[in-house]
Amino acid sequence: MTAAGSDRRRPENLHPGRIAMGYLVIGLAWIYGSGYVVALPIFSGIATALEILKGTGFVLVTGFGLYILLRRRAGAIESAQLELIALNEQRARLVAAVEQSAEAIVITDPDARIIYVNPAFEQVSGYANSELLGGNANVVNSGQHDLAFWQEVWATLLRGETWQGRFVNRRKDGVTYEADSVITPVLGEHGAVVSYVGVQRDTTRERALERHLAESGRLEAIGQLAGGIAHDFNNLLTVIVGHAQLLSMDKSLDPDAREDLDQIIHASGSAANLVRQLLAVSRRQVLEPAVLDLAVLVEQLRPMLAGLLGSKIILEVASPAPSGAVFVDAGQLEQVIVNLAVNARDAMPNGGTFTMTVSDVDVDETSEPSSPVRPGRYSLLIASDTGSGMDRDTRARVFEPFFTTKPKGHGTGLGLATAYGIVRQSDGYLLVDSEVGRGSTFTVYLPHHDAPGAIALPDETPAAPRGTETILVVEDERPVRTVMDRTLRQLGYTVLVAADATEAKRLAHTTTPSLLVTDVRLPGLDGPTLAAEISDVHPGLPVLFVSGYASETIIDRGELGEDAAFLAKPFTSEDLARRVRELLDLQKPEP
Q1: For residue range 534-567, what is the model confidence (pLDDT) as tens digits?
Q2: What count of Cα atoms within 13 Å lies in the side-chain half-sphere of residue 360?
Q3: Cis peptide leading into residue 570 (ω within 30°)
Q4: Is it the case that residue 383 has pLDDT exceeding 90?
Q5: Which phi and psi (to 5°) does residue 382 adopt?
């Protein structure tokens, strides 16, 4: 302890030495200064001398005794004072700890009237100390807990036990927050409760992140299942579409048979669209991102959106400058916008207003404390409607695949799930804010891209002509392999087919193909590894990868490479012909 601290802790005492000395001085002065001793003869009687000595001894003995008595008394007083000082210092430290605690602390009397709150409680509740003292603790009650909940709380406290749990409280401004709480009854000398001490920690952001993580995990599990189904189904669709298109090339078909084939091709197209939605949900698509201007894209889609919404719904588009540039797949982002518009239309059967707003925003750790969005700069696409809105349970499941509130036969439940998957695969976020009777607002966060010359939509590539080059096709599914073989042969190409990597490498050593077309997933040796080994034999050989989806490992690790050519199943004859021709034409020397 410092010298200053020692001075503060030094107690006031009785100074026994000074008091005893004063007693001696006064006593001896009375004996020797009374004039009696001075008047005695020098050789007075022995009796008189003894009287003087006896008086002097009495004063000395009683003075010493007084000193001993006062010294003991002073020690007791000093000990008591030191204990009191220590107690006061301990109390001061306790008060400072409570006042400066990050946890919200409230103390009430047995009737739940507030008698103390610390600054942290004022901050989290929004109420000032003067507004809380003397009032009831239910001033922050949100009304979201039922009677059974409160009965359990009070039953625990009245038994003299500590209650622990989670409250949903309401701030002064009406905003609710979640708090992990511990309430302890304080017992008096006779065992009766004299007060309650509540300690709360605001866990709003933590709970929001936990719910978001749980939702992401649930969607991820469903997405993995959907992705696996989609991969196998895409192979079947490729076979159905391919054979139907091969049959449609027969000029001798009668009109009824051709119409049947057209219906098969049309139904297959619808099924393929459903599979693409499943792949979007599972985030297993291979995207073709480009730098896009959100404002320009929304403006280009305005006529289509207006027709989609119908005459009863007013479409409003607001894009304050500067608008957001993003690096995403244009077709997929268009699907997100359309799905949001369809959802808004279904929520406003009697008409309303659908508003789309594009802007830029900087997100930091404090701007949106309950948001799962990572800090950074984003371009926002906000879609709001004035429809019926959603309750809490519906909001919690709105992005789940196959979840829908529409009547049977009026929706698949994949629209918003697809939009969510597309946005997440583009490193963005899709959030919803909705209440019953107050409409819904969906906010798309996409990482902002600072690049000049942003475009809205890429131009369509024209159909490719026929060819005569040699193409090596590697596909382990025989029906798919047969369709690709027949399609390319009818286009004039020489086709070498292999069912696995071993057969493909043998063919590559005996001939010189102009193009390798291989499935990403092959038994034994995957497509990218096979392509690398064949490229050692034929350097510069172009490769076209095909698959129902590129596996999560290949996408996440970038094993296909940023510039790898990819064709997703199911594909039409035109899709295959165009991609093959594009890659072959890239190898031709310029004239």
Answers
A1: 999 999 899 999 887 644 445 544 556 666 788 8
A2: 13
A3: yes
A4: yes
A5: -110, 125
Location of structure tokens 């406003």: 348
Residue 518 pLDDT exceeds 90: yes
* pLDDT score, position 1: 41
Distance separating alpha carbons of residues 411 and 403, to the nearest angstrom: 9
Under 8 Å between Cβ of 484 and 576: yes
Helix, strand, coil tally for the chain in percent (to 5): 50, 20, 30
Q: 369 or 158: whose pLDDT is higher?
A: 158
Between 148 and 32, the higher pLDDT residue: 148
Give the pLDDT confidence of 242-300 residue by residue, as tens digits: 777 777 777 777 777 777 777 777 777 666 666 665 555 555 555 567 788 888 888 88
Alpha helices by DSSP H, listed for 249-322, are 255-282, 294-309
User: What is the reported pTM?
Assistant: 0.43
> Which is more confident, 406 or 471?
471
B/e letters for 558-589, b = 16+ CB within 10 Å, e = fewer, are ebbeeebbbbbbbbbbebbbbbbbebbeeeee
Q: What is the DSSP string of 72-99?
A: HHHHHHHHHHHHHHHHHHHHHHHHHHHH
Closest C-alpha to 543, from 508, 509, 510: 508
Q: Which residue from 489, 501, 477 is spatially nearest to 570, judged by alpha carbons? A: 477
What value does the mean pLDDT of the chain take? Answer: 78
In 3D space, the residue among 447, 386, 383 whose CA is nearest the CA of residue 416 turns out to be 383
Reported CATH class of domain 104-202: alpha beta
Cα–Cα distance for residue pair 348/361, rounded to 1 Å: 29
CA angle in degrees (0–180, nearest 5) for 452-458-461: 140
The domain at 289-447 falls in which architecture? 2-Layer Sandwich (3.30)
Residues 6+ apart with CB under 8 A from 464: 577, 578, 579, 580, 581, 582, 585
The 10s digit of each residue's pLDDT in 211-247 is 666 666 665 666 666 666 666 677 777 778 777 777 7
Helix 204-248 and helix 478-490, axial crossing angle in degrees, nearest 10: 50
CA–CA dist 99, 94 (Å, integer) = 9
Q: What is the CATH number that goes with domain 470-586? A: 3.40.50.2300
Q: What is the token pair recorded at 93? A: 């430290």
What does the alpha-carbon distance between residue 54 and residue 56 come to, in Å, rounded to a whole number? 5
**CA distance linking residue 129 with residue 159, whole number of Å:** 30
Q: How sure is the predictor about 3, in pLDDT bands with cuts at 50, 70 and 90?
A: very low
* Cβ 567 vs Cβ 545: under 8 Å: yes
In sequence order, which residues have a C-beta less than 8 Å from that of residue 424 and are 6 or more positions away?
Answer: 283, 430
163-170 and 494-498 strand pairing: unpaired
Burial 391-411 (b: 16+ CB within 10 A, else e): eeeeeeebbbbebbeeeeeeb
Q: Give the single-character DSSP code of 141.
A: B
CB atoms within 10 A of CB 223: 25
